[in-house]
Structure formats: C-alpha cells, structure tokens
Amino acid sequence: MNSRAALAPEVASILAAARERPGGDAPLEVEPRSLPDALERAEADGRVPVIAEVKPTSPTADSTREDDPVELAESMVAGGAAAISVLTEPSHFGGSPETLTRVREAVDVPVLRKDFVLREDQLDVVKADLMLVIARFVENLEELVAAARDRGFQPLVEVHDETELETALESGAEIIGVNNRDLARLEVDLETFESVSRAVPDDITLVAESGISTPANVRRMREAGADALLVGNAIMDHGATETAVEANTRRLTRATPEEET
C-alpha cells in the first residue's frame, strides 16, 4: 500500500473495517456486460457516458437516503446513465452486496461494485460487471487485477497521481479512474484529472471520478480526455425524489457546449 501521505481519519476508518471484512467462500464466475460497449452506445445516442452511483450515504454526504436503491438505479438509467455504480461497503456507506445483486437484476447496463477490496477473496462476495480496485490500498496490484479478470470482472483501477497511474499501467489495467478527491484531506480538485490524464495512453478507457456536479464540470472533464464520468452526490442529491434523480442524471448526460453552468 502506498503510504506517502497520511489518510484522512474517515478513510483510515473505512480501511480498518475493510481489512476485517470476510471474503467469499469460492471464486466467482462472471459474464460481464462490457463497459466500453456501453460507453460507445451512449456516445452514439448523443449522451455523455455517465456512471451514476447508488450511494445511500458517505462520510462526505449530509444525510442518508432510505428509498429503494433499485428504483433509484432505474431512474438513473431512465435519465441516460451508461452504467451504474453500487456501493457495497456497509459500515460507512450503508451499502450491501444484496443491493448490488438487486440492482444488477433490474437494469440492463453494466454495474460497478464500488468497495474497498484489499484481498483476492474479497472479490468473491458478489457478482458485478466491473470491480473497483484502488491502487493506493493494494499490496500487489498486478495480482489483484489479474485475479479480478480471471473471474470475469472488468477491473476499474483508481489512481490519484502519476505515480499510481504508472503502477496501474504496469498492472495491465485497461480501465482507469482518476479520483479528483484527495484521500489525505478529502478535498476535491478537478485539476487532478487534467494533470494525470495527460500521461494516460489512448488505448485506456479513462474515467473521471468525484467533484463532477454541473454541465460545466462535465464539459471540462470531457475536454481533458474523460471517456466516462463517475458521478455520485450530484445525482443522488440526498433527499430528492426518484423523478429528481432522473432529471439530475439527464442534466449531466445531455450536457452540451451551449448549455450554461
């Protein structure tokens, strides 16, 4: 694990809990829905490729959603989301593997399992199309990426700087997410993606993560090379109705150069 800077207390607490969580009993076999294909379909339809996130709560959210996550996911797809991300971390984000299974059964787009997966056996908790792997937190990234791919998962390897990007590329990652949120201070800076994306090869599917809340943010990340955008709080808008969640999604997936912020 990369420990160049101290983690925010909230993140350290999440990691401590993740280390104690058990994995599955046996390796899973997954037939994934292709994320690159889903992004291409969105582009062909004139939509910005957005991975919309079902997230009941988080250390950076103001409240908790109690409504049905399946209905929220369906609203996101109706709003044009190319894929869905589901938090399965239970103690800090209110997620569960069961929620991911229900969402994946209800929608026809790729579903990302977003969690703090640290060991190979933790891959085997629930079937998903994509698996988030955070480069900073994994001892042997190449082994974990290979293990995820062996099961059928499409690993989305998350990085925050060029050093982590180099490690991700060396691991064989084909889908890379650049997190604009600094896990040491929990501060968000969209320049992070702009800086790191310059060193990403053209054949990598590149995802911008965190801090994307307006059509102007969408355009900025797309101009910097994002193939897709992972959006959570701006779509969930904790407390909004499913209708508002759909509208929030559509506002970002239909962002155009002429649109105002």
Automatic annotation (TrEMBL):
GO terms for biological process: L-tryptophan biosynthetic process. It holds the Pfam family IGPS. Residues 19-46 are annotated as: Disordered. One of its GO terms (molecular function) is indole-3-glycerol-phosphate synthase activity. Its EC number is 4.1.1.48. Residues 30-46 have a biased composition (Basic and acidic residues). Residues 16-246 form the Indole-3-glycerol phosphate synthase domain. SUPFAM superfamilies: Ribulose-phoshate binding barrel. Belongs to the TrpC family. PANTHER family: INDOLE-3-GLYCEROL-PHOSPHATE SYNTHASE (PTHR22854:SF2), TRYPTOPHAN BIOSYNTHESIS PROTEIN (PTHR22854). This is Indole-3-glycerol phosphate synthase. It comes from Natronobacterium gregoryi (strain ATCC 43098 / DSM 3393 / CCM 3738 / CIP 104747 / IAM 13177 / JCM 8860 / NBRC 102187 / NCIMB 2189 / SP2). The gene is trpC.
